[in-house]
Amino acid sequence: MNVSVFHSVSQSSLLCGVSSFLLCYPRTQDPSTMPLLKLPAIDDATRSFAEKVFASEVKDEGGRHEISPFDVDDICPISQHEMFAHMIHLETQSTPTERRRKKRFFGLKTISLSVPQTETSSTKLSLIDEYISSSPTYQTVPDFQRVQITGDYASGVTVEDFEMVCKGLYRALCIREKYMQKSFQRFPKTPSKYLRNIDGEAWVANENFYPVFTPPMKKGEDPFRTDNLPENLGYQLKMKDGVVYVYPNEEAASKDEPKPLPYPNLDRFLDDMNFLLALIAQGPVKTYTHRRLKFLSSKFQVHQMLNEMDELKELKNNPHRDFYNCRKVDTHIHAAACMNQKHLLRFIKKSYQIDADRVVYSSKEKNLTLKELFAKLKMHPYDLTVDSLDVHAGRQTFQRFDKFNDKYNPVGASELRDLYLKTDNYINGEYFATIIKEVGADLVEAKYQHAEPRLSIYGRSPEEWSKLSTWFVQNRVYCPNMTWMIQVPRIYDVFRSKNFLPHFGKMLENIFMPVFEATINPQAHPDLSVFLKHITGFDSVDDESKHSGHMFSSKSPKPQEWTMEKNPSYTYYTYYMYANIMVLNSLRKERGMNTFLFRPHCGEAGALTHLMTAFMTADNISHGLNLKKSPVLQYLFFLAQIPIAMSPLSNNSLFLEYARNPFLDFLQKGLMISLSTDDPMQFHFTKEKARFLGNNYLEEGPAGNDIRRTNVAQIRMAYRYETWCYELNLIAEGIKSGE
């Protein structure tokens, strides 16, 4: 029987030096020293190839129709006969030792599924049958039909390529693990156990690398309390090359002797980035990952066909839980559009009835009452409808991010946006705070719904943090069903063109320096210190389809040297945001404060290098649509189980039609995805903690699932976990068999 594999565009002329580098995979260290992980420096051939790929991607990122270096062409099969002929040709050129190693590969039957043992320290992996019989976890999993592939093992690529692919994927996972642990962001236990198994080292649970979140407020506790803020440490701060450095005192600052925190290494970051660029553009890696993703999709369909009734039976036997009363968290929602259209319209009319004669707006000519403001706009709130409010995104906004942003202006009037949807205005954001508190009240009433609205810090002025935190505290914008995110729009070019900023470094300083100051001396910044307790992470937002044409490299200007009006690239923004968050998290963890996750908008449009950079730096992302264009990145996101908050309704009005959205495809393959609203005002017409998910929610697989709380079938959890382990084990076996 002929088995087809898929052929991608050849780049052999550039890859000859890359393959040898990928084979030189690293040996990692003990998890306790992972932030200092040593990986071999990349060679000139790899760096040159990566730069060519990056330059090509930047040049063509606006609407490419031909096959990119990252795509796999689905209509180019190579028959098994051709593949076998290729292997025979290579066989005649190999040494006796290589031939023996290949024979071991060809004699390899189906790889048995091995899963990590449950102990906190182990170098072993257990066969699935042993694990099921000995694990207390699997006693709660009903019997179900598993999909098993038997016969001679074939990866779809040659022996040499399979070994190279496994080692490349292994190194890529090591890179992500390193950057997540350095910044106190999350890397799953399961792949970490497999990586240590490959190294022949014991995996040791180390909670020192975990992020720190502010615990939920206890009943009667004041969320705005300031009498227990930590004392001043007296540290000094200085920004160097776009990164904040922390010094124990003035003398150390004068000698440039910073505290021993994990400061970023730009050269190492660029080497790791170039490695990933080379990896995701390699033909054999694309072929292998494409086939594995196809297999994952097909395997899920078979699993569903065989076990859907058993899963449904589990759910029916689960008392008091269904879709409506299990916890749901909207992890991607913008505060300025967190209400639906009807809610905003109702509030505008109500405010006019109550405050018609109140001075609410300051124009260049004079201060205006609410009644005078509407008269100036030549309208009356009584006549407004959802249609005339015109905040709903439709087909006219497709591929038009500029028109989409205009939808934040009710009735097309920026004055109403400033009055109702801004935190800094004549009435100190009172209306906006009231709307958000009403949305929060709806969440509390619904009981099982939670949200993480995003508020903006632009980096135009260092006073932004003080104003935003004062708004938050004075208006007491707290809801037990809400936590908050900070979004940073990538609009340096706008500020520079208006001469608001001298250089990009000043923007970074305005964004991060106030947070460092409040961390060192909370008592001098009480409002900001309280506000930061309710912040979970940072986001990077703007239209990804806009590209600067800049390739981030060691030759790129330092932030203080970036004085041009052109916007830096997405990768440039991402690196400096990650670098400062990494240092900030180390300082805050040292003080026992909550840390922050980096959770950017990524992969909605633009170059695939956005997703590659996020793989290195982001705890999780929003959108991720462009993963469908790169099988390698998609497979890596699966292996690392990087969370992706997807918004099909939002995408339908901006970048991708609903029917073409990859949400269902990603779900079938087993990527970690969630549904999010993005902007309910524009896209919607209608309106996590241990006690919500169970005490073992940090565990992976069925061990971490409490069906009584999550309403997710244990059969589904077991299937997902075993499938994940199988793919990771495949990489481990590929490396070990090639040694």
Automatic annotation (TrEMBL):
This protein's GO CC annotations: cytosol
SUPFAM superfamilies on file: Metallo-dependent hydrolases (SSF51556)
Keyword Zinc attributed: yes
Superkingdom assignment: Eukaryota
Cell cycle recorded as keyword: no
GO molecular function: AMP deaminase activity; metal ion binding
A Pfam family: AMP_deaminase
The entry's keywords: Hydrolase, Metal-binding, Nucleotide metabolism, Zinc
GO biological-process terms attached to the record: AMP metabolic process; IMP salvage
Names of required cofactors: Zn(2+)
Top-level enzyme category: hydrolase
Pathway entry: Purine metabolism; IMP biosynthesis via salvage pathway; IMP from AMP: step 1/1
InterPro entries documented for this protein: A/AMP_deam_AS (IPR006650), AMPD (IPR006329), Metal_Hydrolase (IPR032466)
EC numbers for this chain: 3.5.4.6
NCBIfam families in UniProt: AMP_deaminase
PANTHER family reported in the protein's UniProt record: AMP DEAMINASE, AMP DEAMINASE 1
Similarity comment: family membership: Belongs to the metallo-dependent hydrolases superfamily. Adenosine and AMP deaminases family.
Complex formation: Homotetramer.
The protein, known as: AMP deaminase
Organism, as annotated: Cervus elaphus hippelaphus (European red deer)
